[in-house]
Design goal:
The protein is about 30% helix and about 25% strand. The protein is of the alpha/beta class. It has a 6-stranded mixed sheet with strand order 4-3-2-1-13-14, with no helix packed on it. Helix 2 runs antiparallel to helix 8 and helix 4 runs antiparallel to helix 8. The structure holds zinc ion. Zinc ion (ZN) binds next to loops.
C-alpha cells in the first residue's frame, strides 16, 4: 500500500511540475492563464446618508453584511469599493451631522474612493474640507478647478492609484457640470467645472505614466452623459465608468466601455467583475450587474457605528433651535407659509407646494427644538423638483398650500408677476404628493429627486433666524393667506 501511494505521489508531483512549468514558462501567446487576474468592483452612488434600513431603502450594515456573506468580500480580497458621490443629505442621521456620520460609515466599509457629487457641497466648502480630512479614502474630481488659478482644489484629487490583486488601478473622478443642480450657488463660489473630455484627456496620460494598468472612472454623471462620453472613454483606454446623480439603475456596455449605476439610497449595489490580462493590460471579460440590498445580512461593526449615531441624534433632538411666543396652529396660514417659504429659502425654485394633511401638530409656545419639528412633520418625505407649466399648476387639485405664489385674485408669483399658462415653473413638492396626488406624475414624469428631507429646510431656516424671547419667531411669520 505504501509503495502504491508513493508512486501515485511521484506521478502527481511530476504532473504538477510539468503543469507548473507550462504555466510559468515563456509562451508564444501573451494570454497565458496565469496572466489573468480577477477584480470585483462593488459600487454605490447617491447613498444620501441612508445608513439606516427603513422601508424599501437604506441599510449600510445590511449591505456590508451581504458583501461579506454573499460576495465573499474581505479586506485582503480582490475587491474595490467605490462611490459615485452624493454621499450625504437625506435622513436626519446624515444631514444633522453634516455628513460626518456617513463618512465614518464609509471609512468602516473600506471605500477606496468616491466621486464628488453636487450634494457634497451642501454644507459649504469648509465642511467639505473637514470631510476630506476625516475620510480615509480620497474624494475625486478631475474636472473641478479653482476659478482663479485653474489649479486643482484642496478637497479633491483628480485621481488616485490603488493596487488590487497585483493590478495597479487608476481611479479618476468626474463631477456633474450642471451648476443648476447645486443647491446653493455660494457653496461652489470660486469653483469651475470644466468639460469632462478635456479633463480626462489632460489626466489620463498622467495616470498611465504613474503606472496605472487598468483605468476606472467614478463619476456623478447620469446615464445619458456617460453614454455620450463612451467614445472618449474607449479612446483613452478606460474600461469602466460608474455614474450617479439621476438615481438610475444602469448596466450596459457602450463602445466596449462598461457603464454602471446602482440606483440610490443603498437600495442596491453595482457589481463589475473584471478579468484582467496582466500581460496585455487589457480587460478580457467584464460582467455587470446591479443587486438589491436584501436586508437579511448584517455587519456587526457597521451596525455598531450606526447605533452610536442614532443615539447621538436622539440626544440632539432636545437642542433648542429658536423661540416662539405663542402656539402656532398646524392648520394656519403662518404655518403653511413658514414651511413652504423655508423650502424656497433653501432650494432655488419658483414655487413650493405641500399638503395640509402632512402637518400633524401645532408648534407649542416657548423653546423650539428639533423634536418639535419631528412631531409637526413626522413623515419621512423628501422634496422633489418638477417643471410644470402655468396651466398645469392651475389645474392641480387637493389640499395644497403654496409658497412663492398666491391664488388670491388670480394666480401670481409672490413678486406680483402673473403666472402665465404657457410659461414653465420650477416647483417643489414632496415625493409623497408627487406619487399620490392627481396630475403631478403625468405632468412631469421625470422629477428631480433633491434628496432633501422636507423637514430640513424648516429647521435650517428657523436656526438661521436666531429667534429668542426678545425676538420671537412671530417677527418673521407671514400671516397672509395664499389660497
Ligand atoms: Zn447628485
Amino acid at each position: 500500500m505504501k509503495y502504491k501511494i508513493s508512486v501515485i505521489l511521484t506521478i502527481l508531483v511530476l504532473f504538477l511540475l510539468v503543469a507548473g512549468s507550462t504555466c510559468n514558462g515563456p509562451s508564444a501567446e501573451d494570454s497565458t492563464s496565469d496572466a489573468l487576474r480577477e477584480l470585483t468592483v462593488l459600487y454605490t452612488n447617491d447613498e444620501h446618508g441612508w445608513m439606516v434600513h427603513d422601508g424599501d431603502a437604506g441599510g449600510a450594515a445590511e449591505m456590508m453584511g451581504q458583501w461579506r456573506d454573499v460576495e465573499g468580500y474581505s479586506e485582503e480580497g480582490a475587491f474595490l469599493i467605490l462611490s459615485g458621490g452624493d454621499m450625504w443629505t437625506g435622513p436626519a442621521i446624515s444631514t444633522w451631522f453634516q455628513g460626518e456620520s456617513m463618512t465614518e460609515i464609509m471609512n468602516a466599509m473600506n471605500y477606496s474612493a468616491a466621486a464628488i457629487g453636487n450634494h457634497e457641497f451642501d454644507f459649504g466648502q469648509a465642511v467639505l474640507l473637514e470631510r476630506t480630512g476625516q475620510a480615509n479614502f480620497p474624494f475625486l474630481s478631475a474636472n473641478m478647478r479653482d476659478e482663479n488659478t485653474g489649479e486643482l482644489t484642496a478637497y479633491a484629487l483628480p485621481y488616485t492609484l490603488v493596487e488590487v490583486n497585483h493590478i495597479v488601478v487608476g481611479l479618476i473622478g468626474l463631477t456633474t457640470m450642471s451648476a443648476d443642480d447645486i443647491n446653493f450657488p455660494e457653496n461652489v463660489a470660486g469653483l469651475d467645472f470644466i468639460d469632462y473630455e478635456i479633463a480626462l484627456e489632460e489626466i489620463v496620460h498622467q495616470v498611465k505614466s504613474e503606472g496605472a494598468e487598468l483605468l476606472i472612472v467614478i463619476s456623478h454623471l447620469c446615464k445619458n452623459d456617460m453614454e455620450a462620453l463612451a467614445p472618449t472613454l474607449a479612446e483613452l483606454g478606460i474600461a469602466l465608468i460608474g455614474g450617479g446623480h439621476c438615481h438610475e439603475v444602469v448596466t450596459e456596455t457602450v463602445n466596449d466601455v462598461g457603464i454602471l449605476e446602482s440606483g440610490s439610497y443603498l437600495r442596491n449595489y453595482g457589481k463589475a467583475t473584471l478579468t484582467f490580462n496582466d500581460n496585455t493590460d487589457s480587460v478580457v471579460n467584464m460582467d455587470l450587474s446591479v443587486i438589491p440590498n436584501d436586508w437579511t445580512h448584517s455587519d456587526p461593526e457597521i451596525s455598531q457605528i450606526v447605533t452610536e449615531w442614532q443615539t447621538r441624534l436622539t440626544d440632539d433632538l432636545s437642542n433648542v433651535i429658536g423661540y416662539v411666543e405663542n402656539e402656532l396652529l398646524r392648520h394656519s396660514d403662518p404655518m403653511y407659509n413658514l414651511i413652504t417659504d423655508a423650502w424656497l429659502w433653501e432650494y432655488p425654485a419658483d414655487i413650493a407646494m405641500t399638503n395640509t394633511g402632512g402637518i400633524r401638530q401645532n408648534l407649542l409656545a416657548g423653546d423650539i427644538t428639533l423634536e418639535s419639528w419631528v412631531g409637526i412633520l413626522p413623515f419621512e418625505n423628501f422634496i422633489v423638483q418638477l417643471e410644470l407649466t402655468g396651466s398645469q399648476i392651475m389645474s392641480l387639485e387637493g389640499d395644497l398650500v403654496v409658497g412663492g405664489m398666491t391664488k388670491i385674485q388670480g394666480y401670481h408669483l409672490s413678486d406680483g408677476t402673473p403666472i402665465y399658462p404657457d410659461s414653465v415653473y420650477s416647483v417643489l413638492t414632496t415625493d409623497y404628493i408627487y406619487s399620490t396626488f392627481q396630475g403631478f406624475s403625468d405632468y412631469d414624469p421625470e422629477p428631480y429627486e433633491t434628496s432633501i428631507h422636507w423637514r430640513q429646510p424648516v429647521i435650517d431656516y428657523i436656526q438661521s433666524l436666531q429667534t429668542t424671547a426678545a425676538d420671537p419667531l412671530e417677527n418673521y411669520l407671514d400671516y397672509e393667506p395664499r389660497q
